[in-house]
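Order emerges. For instance:

***
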Amino acid sequence: MRQLRGQERAITANRQTDWAFADAFVPEGEALRWARAEARAVGLPSVSPGTGAALRLLAASADAKAVAEIGTGTGVSGIYLLLGMRPDGTLTTVDVQPEHQQLAKTAFRAAGFAGNRARFIPGRALDVLPRLADGGYDLVFCDGDRYEYPDYLAESLRLLRPGGLVCFEGVFADGRTVDSGAQPAEVQRVRELLRTVRESQELLPSLLPMGDGLLCAVRRG
């Protein structure tokens, strides 16, 4: 094995500490803590605080007024997106579990958002997305079925305005994406997504090493 140089050893030794510091850098309020607790209670994963802060930043940078979210969960990522969006913006959030969306509604109210700031659509994402307006969204956040990620990308490109952002949560798949061993079909599909985004002439991508991996790309004008 190649001998690590001093600087490389320091980076390796400190990486977990750095990630933990980044995750704790932005404190979370009571509504987010409640939403996280509800997610744990029903057995759902939720975005890390660092990933949430990145989503808030991206929504603010895009001056987002219309955002589509695949995977409502209990509202953790939705709160972060709404915090970054314009005050008159609307989050359209899709989930196959209406009972989870009810928890998210409670979390959004607790965070101080008016009821008209979010539109909840129950259903399978690939059934709902074709009904949304072409070019009508500033940002699309995907945190649903990883096996469907390449299909979400195709729909997202249709939904996004030029200069809009698409983001995919969980592309590290708990380290399995870069593991050379045999992997399940959903991991193969994540790899397909990564290749497609990296090679696309229509997208300007970046892979952010936070949480379980956040893949982001801007749709070129």
Summary: The longest strand covers residues 160-169. The first helix runs from residue 6 to 24. The chain is about 45% helix and 20% strand.
